[in-house]
Write a structure and sequence with these properties.
Order of helices and strands: EHEHEHEHEEH
Largest sheet: 4 strands, parallel
Oligomer: single chain
Strand order of the largest sheet: 2-1-3-4
Length: 164
């Protein structure tokens, strides 16, 4: 089955927790791409009446730190609402140096670790692409809309978490 024919945004049958609250953490880098990813993500959350908060960090490497710190603060004295999921949004575009490989590895390792360490899901909504055209193809083009898909993944994971 080709990627284009998969329906990755199907939300039929999802039963969300009553207190569903998502924290979206996005990067400043590649702002135009991130803005479009964020718009798609927010659209899906609004359609499902899920409360959310948006935070911005400088770059993709900082996504993991922000998620972990927000989780820690949400546990102290009830001053911050405890999220039922996190969504990370970023875009790393390959350049002419090995920097791309290091950044992608750190980001994926950090977000993977958060999925094991935290009791709520952290969704990997980070594009790792060779050029802006590939990013464009993932914002409603040939490869779907990765912002929307990240939000749907969060909805599905919150539902799964509720079932345990």
């Amino acid at each position: 089955m080709s990627i284009a024919s998969q329906n990755l945004t199907n939300t039929q049958g999802i039963r969300l927790p009553l207190d569903a609250f998502v924290v979206i953490v996005s990067t400043e880098w590649n702002a135009e791409i991130i803005s479009r990813m964020l718009h798609g993500c927010e659209k899906v959350l609004k359609e499902h009446k899920v409360a959310y908060k948006h935070l911005t960090v400088p770059g993709a490497v900082e996504l993991g730190f922000a998620v972990k710190k927000y989780w820690e603060k949400s546990n102290s004295f009830g001053t911050v609402i405890r999220p039922t999921a996190f969504i990370t949004l970023g875009c790393v575009i390959k350049g002419g140096t090995p920097h791309f490989d290091y950044v992608c590895r750190m980001v994926s390792d950090n977000i993977s670790a958060l999925n094991v360490l935290l009791p709520v899901p952290t969704i990997f909504g980070v594009l790792t692409v060779n050029n802006e055209k590939e990013a464009e193809d993932r914002l409603g083009g040939l490869h779907g809309h990765k912002g929307e898909e990240a939000a749907v993944a969060a909805l599905k994971m919150m539902c799964i978490s509720e079932q345990f």
